[in-house]
Design a protein that fits this description.
Blueprint lengths: L13 H17 L5 E5 L13 E7 L2 H6 L1 H6 L2 E3 L11 E7 L2 E10 L3 H15 L1 H17 L4 H16 L4 H15 L5 H9 L2 H4 L2
Parallel strand pairs: 2-5
Antiparallel strand pairs: 1-2, 3-4, 4-5
Helix pairs in contact: 4-5, 5-6, 5-7, 7-8
Amino acid sequence: MSQTPIELVAYTPAWTTAYEREAARIREAAGEHVVALEHVGSTAVPGLAAKPIVDLLGGVERLADADAAVDALEAIGYDYCPAFEESLPQRRYFRRTVNGHHTHHLHVVRRDSDFWDRHVRFRDCLREDPDLARAYEQLKRRLARDHTDDIDGYTEGKTEFIERVLDGDRDGWVLDETRHDAHCGDHSGNETRHDAHCGDHSENETR
């Protein structure tokens, strides 16, 4: 699927400020329905490069509460995107766009859902383990290079890493990424060969 080229930028504390500002706006507009908020995704992990879009996770007691919050969220600038419910019926997804660019994604789910648990746990794993966060960034940078116009390929390429981390296998990925960097680094004197050779591994890295 062709998309705007994937751009990863260096971490900035401004992402935390942006989350806090949006969380306050959401609580004021829809706090009756959205009873919990978390900053998730890569912008929530200090030091981690990310696409410059802040991901917010909104928690509700019942999915009907998410539906009831739609009007209030649209009133503060969030576009409701129901088409994604075909693949994720348990989530209500919203985007905020400023000057033609997506700046915030809001995922509203039940607070006791697997979706909520997995996103918070993965964020916490990255926050707690700088080596793991570095390995994840290395993987993302490689995927952004290999799938620059393909957000589906980029996202799919991260799946195995996320699943293994949530299953408790952190050390294996850190070792895998270290080996990959050392192996590809052998070709640093020839950038064309480096990219071609390292690209040979992209299929294995993305399942």
